[in-house]
Amino acid sequence: MKFNLYAALLFLMFLAIGTTCAKDNYPQDEKASQLDQAVKQLWTALSHQANGSPDIKGLDHLLHDKAVITGIRQPLNQSELSQLSKTEFLSRINKVNPYSFTEIELDRNTYLYDNWASVQSIALSKRVQDGNTETYKGINSIQLAFDGKSWKIISLYYALESQSPMKLDPLELITNDTQ
After folding, report:
1. What are the record keywords, sorted (predicted)?
2. pTM of the model
3. Is it true that domain 2-160 has CATH number 3.40.50.1950?
4. 129-179: per-residue pLDDT in tens?
Protein backbone atom coordinates (compact mmCIF):
# COMPACT_ATOMS: atom_id res chain seq x y z
CA MET A 1 0.00 0.00 0.00
CA LYS A 2 2.94 2.30 0.71
CA PHE A 3 4.06 2.05 -2.93
CA ASN A 4 0.59 2.87 -4.25
CA LEU A 5 0.35 5.97 -2.07
CA TYR A 6 3.77 7.05 -3.31
CA ALA A 7 2.78 6.47 -6.94
CA ALA A 8 -0.49 8.37 -6.46
CA LEU A 9 1.30 11.31 -4.83
CA LEU A 10 3.84 11.42 -7.64
CA PHE A 11 1.04 11.37 -10.19
CA LEU A 12 -0.86 14.22 -8.49
CA MET A 13 2.31 16.25 -8.07
CA PHE A 14 3.13 15.67 -11.71
CA LEU A 15 -0.31 16.94 -12.78
CA ALA A 16 -0.26 19.94 -10.43
CA ILE A 17 2.93 21.45 -11.86
CA GLY A 18 1.46 21.59 -15.34
CA THR A 19 1.77 18.86 -17.91
CA THR A 20 1.92 18.72 -21.64
CA CYS A 21 -0.13 16.33 -23.66
CA ALA A 22 2.41 14.26 -25.59
CA LYS A 23 0.24 13.49 -28.58
CA ASP A 24 -0.71 17.15 -29.14
CA ASN A 25 2.09 19.42 -27.94
CA TYR A 26 5.19 17.44 -26.94
CA PRO A 27 7.88 17.26 -29.63
CA GLN A 28 7.93 13.78 -31.08
CA ASP A 29 11.48 13.03 -30.01
CA GLU A 30 12.88 9.56 -29.39
CA LYS A 31 11.56 9.33 -25.81
CA ALA A 32 7.97 10.17 -26.83
CA SER A 33 8.14 7.66 -29.67
CA GLN A 34 9.43 4.97 -27.29
CA LEU A 35 6.58 5.77 -24.89
CA ASP A 36 4.02 5.25 -27.64
CA GLN A 37 5.65 1.92 -28.56
CA ALA A 38 5.68 0.77 -24.92
CA VAL A 39 1.93 1.34 -24.57
CA LYS A 40 1.24 -0.44 -27.86
CA GLN A 41 3.48 -3.30 -26.69
CA LEU A 42 1.31 -3.72 -23.58
CA TRP A 43 -1.84 -4.37 -25.64
CA THR A 44 0.01 -6.65 -28.07
CA ALA A 45 1.64 -8.67 -25.28
CA LEU A 46 -1.68 -9.26 -23.50
CA SER A 47 -3.34 -10.51 -26.71
CA HIS A 48 -3.07 -14.09 -27.94
CA GLN A 49 -4.56 -16.64 -30.32
CA ALA A 50 -6.73 -19.59 -29.26
CA ASN A 51 -4.61 -22.24 -27.53
CA GLY A 52 -2.00 -19.59 -26.92
CA SER A 53 -0.87 -17.39 -24.08
CA PRO A 54 0.12 -13.78 -23.49
CA ASP A 55 3.67 -12.70 -24.31
CA ILE A 56 5.11 -13.17 -20.81
CA LYS A 57 8.65 -12.31 -21.91
CA GLY A 58 7.45 -9.03 -23.46
CA LEU A 59 5.40 -8.16 -20.37
CA ASP A 60 8.30 -9.04 -18.08
CA HIS A 61 10.50 -6.58 -19.97
CA LEU A 62 7.81 -3.87 -19.98
CA LEU A 63 6.83 -4.06 -16.29
CA HIS A 64 9.14 -2.57 -13.66
CA ASP A 65 10.29 -5.14 -11.09
CA LYS A 66 8.21 -3.37 -8.42
CA ALA A 67 5.19 -2.77 -10.67
CA VAL A 68 1.74 -3.03 -9.14
CA ILE A 69 -1.29 -4.08 -11.19
CA THR A 70 -4.62 -3.07 -9.66
CA GLY A 71 -7.92 -4.07 -11.19
CA ILE A 72 -11.55 -3.58 -10.44
CA ARG A 73 -14.42 -5.57 -11.87
CA GLN A 74 -18.01 -4.58 -11.34
CA PRO A 75 -20.28 -7.56 -11.84
CA LEU A 76 -23.85 -6.74 -10.87
CA ASN A 77 -22.64 -3.28 -9.73
CA GLN A 78 -20.55 -4.87 -6.95
CA SER A 79 -16.90 -3.80 -7.03
CA GLU A 80 -14.26 -6.53 -6.83
CA LEU A 81 -10.74 -5.17 -6.33
CA SER A 82 -7.54 -7.11 -6.93
CA GLN A 83 -3.96 -5.94 -6.51
CA LEU A 84 -1.01 -7.95 -7.77
CA SER A 85 2.74 -7.58 -7.91
CA LYS A 86 4.49 -8.06 -11.25
CA THR A 87 5.39 -11.65 -10.30
CA GLU A 88 1.83 -12.48 -9.17
CA PHE A 89 0.31 -10.91 -12.29
CA LEU A 90 2.63 -12.74 -14.70
CA SER A 91 2.08 -16.04 -12.87
CA ARG A 92 -1.70 -15.59 -13.04
CA ILE A 93 -1.80 -15.00 -16.80
CA ASN A 94 1.01 -17.38 -17.81
CA LYS A 95 -1.12 -20.20 -19.13
CA VAL A 96 -2.38 -21.57 -22.41
CA ASN A 97 -5.95 -20.45 -23.01
CA PRO A 98 -8.52 -22.25 -25.20
CA TYR A 99 -9.86 -18.88 -26.37
CA SER A 100 -8.34 -16.05 -28.39
CA PHE A 101 -8.01 -12.73 -26.62
CA THR A 102 -7.40 -9.33 -28.19
CA GLU A 103 -6.90 -5.93 -26.59
CA ILE A 104 -7.64 -3.00 -28.92
CA GLU A 105 -6.91 0.52 -27.70
CA LEU A 106 -9.79 2.86 -28.57
CA ASP A 107 -8.75 6.15 -26.98
CA ARG A 108 -5.68 7.49 -25.19
CA ASN A 109 -4.55 10.61 -23.37
CA THR A 110 -0.83 10.77 -22.66
CA TYR A 111 0.88 13.16 -20.28
CA LEU A 112 4.65 13.35 -20.34
CA TYR A 113 6.98 15.15 -17.96
CA ASP A 114 10.70 14.46 -18.27
CA ASN A 115 11.14 10.78 -17.34
CA TRP A 116 7.59 10.25 -16.07
CA ALA A 117 4.45 9.53 -18.06
CA SER A 118 0.81 8.96 -17.27
CA VAL A 119 -1.46 7.32 -19.82
CA GLN A 120 -5.23 7.10 -19.57
CA SER A 121 -6.63 4.67 -22.07
CA ILE A 122 -9.82 2.91 -23.04
CA ALA A 123 -9.39 -0.54 -24.53
CA LEU A 124 -11.82 -2.99 -26.06
CA SER A 125 -11.25 -6.59 -24.99
CA LYS A 126 -12.45 -9.31 -27.30
CA ARG A 127 -12.57 -12.97 -26.31
CA VAL A 128 -13.58 -15.64 -28.82
CA GLN A 129 -14.14 -19.30 -27.96
CA ASP A 130 -16.07 -21.95 -29.85
CA GLY A 131 -17.61 -19.32 -32.14
CA ASN A 132 -18.89 -17.23 -29.23
CA THR A 133 -17.56 -13.68 -28.90
CA GLU A 134 -17.53 -11.63 -25.72
CA THR A 135 -16.53 -7.97 -25.83
CA TYR A 136 -16.17 -5.43 -23.07
CA LYS A 137 -14.41 -2.14 -22.50
CA GLY A 138 -11.98 -1.21 -19.80
CA ILE A 139 -10.47 2.05 -18.67
CA ASN A 140 -6.79 2.02 -17.79
CA SER A 141 -4.44 4.34 -15.96
CA ILE A 142 -0.82 3.50 -16.65
CA GLN A 143 2.14 5.21 -14.98
CA LEU A 144 5.54 4.75 -16.55
CA ALA A 145 9.12 5.77 -15.78
CA PHE A 146 11.97 6.09 -18.28
CA ASP A 147 15.04 4.29 -16.93
CA GLY A 148 17.48 5.80 -19.42
CA LYS A 149 16.97 2.98 -21.94
CA SER A 150 13.25 2.21 -22.05
CA TRP A 151 9.88 2.97 -20.49
CA LYS A 152 8.81 0.70 -17.63
CA ILE A 153 5.29 0.41 -16.26
CA ILE A 154 5.39 1.15 -12.54
CA SER A 155 1.64 0.92 -12.00
CA LEU A 156 -1.34 -0.18 -14.02
CA TYR A 157 -4.90 0.38 -12.86
CA TYR A 158 -7.78 -1.04 -14.86
CA ALA A 159 -11.52 -1.03 -14.38
CA LEU A 160 -13.75 -3.27 -16.44
CA GLU A 161 -16.92 -1.91 -17.94
CA SER A 162 -19.91 -1.19 -15.75
CA GLN A 163 -23.29 0.24 -16.68
CA SER A 164 -21.99 3.83 -16.90
CA PRO A 165 -20.68 5.18 -20.23
CA MET A 166 -16.93 5.09 -20.68
CA LYS A 167 -15.08 8.07 -22.13
CA LEU A 168 -11.91 10.04 -21.42
CA ASP A 169 -13.24 13.55 -20.98
CA PRO A 170 -11.53 15.38 -18.11
CA LEU A 171 -13.91 16.83 -15.54
CA GLU A 172 -11.57 19.75 -15.07
CA LEU A 173 -8.17 20.56 -16.47
CA ILE A 174 -6.06 22.88 -14.35
CA THR A 175 -2.72 24.25 -15.42
CA ASN A 176 -0.79 26.42 -13.01
CA ASP A 177 1.48 28.68 -15.05
CA THR A 178 4.07 30.22 -12.76
CA GLN A 179 5.48 32.58 -15.41
Report:
1. Signal
2. 0.75
3. no
4. 999 999 888 899 999 999 989 999 999 999 887 655 556 566 565 666 665
